[in-house]
């Protein structure tokens, strides 16, 4: 952990942290309002499922968590006691949000693999391993005011500058290991997603929903990889007024992308279901031919393509 040689740089870095945290909160608030119609039509108006409960929990928890963080960072007269308690809360709250996001990613993978028990065991092992690693890192990295054995916390990095700031003890990189764990888990999830997509591509089975699942998984990983990598680099440098520079965006962007994954799959699902209803109505209006009565014609084939398409989504579970 280090401070800037020039105190003016410390003041500037503190302002950067405040601006990025405020920007992250503004982003998730903006996302909330532009997706509100989808939330109402695709979730609130549908029956309760695990997928619906997970989406609403992720959406409102992440919104409240990130907005609450901003009020602490913008406080220009914050006390040391508040900062210590805040970092306890932030560490725990961030872990809850990340686990929630990864549960969403893993449920999508479970759907892509059509409820495979083997994949379920693999995903369960990953989530338990991730949670254990994060708990160990947080447990070994308790916020405090000592320089050794504690996660260093202060409310005044330089005289006159009040902002909650923290850093790893000299020679330790506990928070960096935290982000390493996230990168490893998400790399595993991406590989599983790409492998299943490759299998579908080779067998020519599946369609737009499988493409959608793959696209969202890749976009999520590309966006979050660089965000988590930036956090890891900042914590390896371990400058106390820069460590939290990118944490706000890492919390916000992962929640936004995970929630959009659930929105996108429901948009596609209900769009295909609506199209199937239209197709059936058109077929019923036509004069039946003898082979259609026998169940061989086009009318008998309605829904076959969508059956393959929708194998990745179960309306009873909501994912």
From TrEMBL:
Sorted alphabetically, the keyword list is: Membrane, Transmembrane, Transmembrane helix
> Per the record's keyword annotation, is tRNA-binding included, yes or no?
no
Instruction: Output the superkingdom of the source species.
Output: Eukaryota
Location of the DUF6533 domain? 19-63
Question: Any transmembrane segments, and where?
Answer: 54-74, 94-111, 118-140, 175-195, 207-228, 240-258
Record has Transmembrane as a keyword: yes
Stated name of the protein: DUF6533 domain-containing protein
Q: What's the source species for this entry?
A: Jaapia argillacea MUCL 33604
- Classification of source organism: Eukaryota, Fungi, Dikarya, Basidiomycota, Agaricomycotina
């Amino acid at each position: 952990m280090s401070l800037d040689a020039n105190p003016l740089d410390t003041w500037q870095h503190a302002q950067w942290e405040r601006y990025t945290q405020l920007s992250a909160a503004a982003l998730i608030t903006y996302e909330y309002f532009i997706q509100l119609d989808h939330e109402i039509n695709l979730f609130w108006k549908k029956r309760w499922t695990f997928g619906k409960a997970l989406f609403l929990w992720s959406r409102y928890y992440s919104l409240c968590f990130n907005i609450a963080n901003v009020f602490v960072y913008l406080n220009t007269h914050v006390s040391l006691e508040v900062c210590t308690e805040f970092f306890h809360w932030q560490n725990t709250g961030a872990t809850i949000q990340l686990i929630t996001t990864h549960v969403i990613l893993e449920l999508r993978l479970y759907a892509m693999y059509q409820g495979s028990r083997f994949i379920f065991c693999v995903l369960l092992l990953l989530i338990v391993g991730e949670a254990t690693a994060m708990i160990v890192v947080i447990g070994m990295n308790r916020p405090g005011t000592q320089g050794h054995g504690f996660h260093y916390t202060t409310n005044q990095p330089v005289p006159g500058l009040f902002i909650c700031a923290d850093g790893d003890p000299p020679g330790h990189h506990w928070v960096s290991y935290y982000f390493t764990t996230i990168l490893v888990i998400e790399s595993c999830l991406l590989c599983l997603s790409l492998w299943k997509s490759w299998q579908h591509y080779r067998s020519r089975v599946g369609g737009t929903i499988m493409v959608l699942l793959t696209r969202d998984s890749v976009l999520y990983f590309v966006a979050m990889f660089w965000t988590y990598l930036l956090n890891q680099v900042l914590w390896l440098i371990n400058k106390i007024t820069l460590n939290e520079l990118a944490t706000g965006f890492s919390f916000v962007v992962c929640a936004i992308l995970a929630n959009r994954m659930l929105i996108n799959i429901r948009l596609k699902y209900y769009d295909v279901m609506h199209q199937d209803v239209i197709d059936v109505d058109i077929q019923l209006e036509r004069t039946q031919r003898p082979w259609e009565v026998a169940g061989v014609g086009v009318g008998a084939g309605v829904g076959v393509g969508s059956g393959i398409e929708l194998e990745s989504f179960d309306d009873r579970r909501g994912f």
